[in-house]
Design brief:
Elements lengths: L1 H7 L6 H25 L7 H28 L2 H24 L5 H24 L4 H23 L1 H6 L9
Amino acid sequence: MTVEFMDKSTIVFSMLWVILGYSICFISGVVLLFPLLKKGKLRLIGINRLFALIVIASLGYIILSTYITFLSELNTSLFFAFGILPFTAFLASCFYITSVYSHSKSIYLFLTGIGYSITCLLGLIILALQVKNVMLFGFINLSTTVAQFCFVFFMIDFEEILKHKNITAFEV
């Protein structure tokens, strides 16, 4: 929320601080999820391998094309490139854990990944195009709030999910 305040406030904050704040947020999220990342093993066999490759390629294309399109507008390509890495790692962690663990609470992590995807990608578009639309800002703030609450709800049940033995292996 502090990063969003810096981004939306009338006080002029350098974009460096905003991206640094989001990067710290995403890195800490990956660190918190690391025990689940170590425990899960995803085996893709047959048609599921093709499906996983299509999903990974499409997400990678959306993220990279959005950033590459607007990097020339923002004139800070190297710094934004370092900001992409924690964002992509956090999204990959969220979607990987959601696909591997069949626990009912893992839907919260999926909603967290979707919410932060909306927040960061639409936020970048708004920043690059200088769009001043109150409804769009409200939608971005709503998606961030939902993502944060879902991540907290997931972390409340983290020990239960970590002890859960039913790990899904996608096999045909």
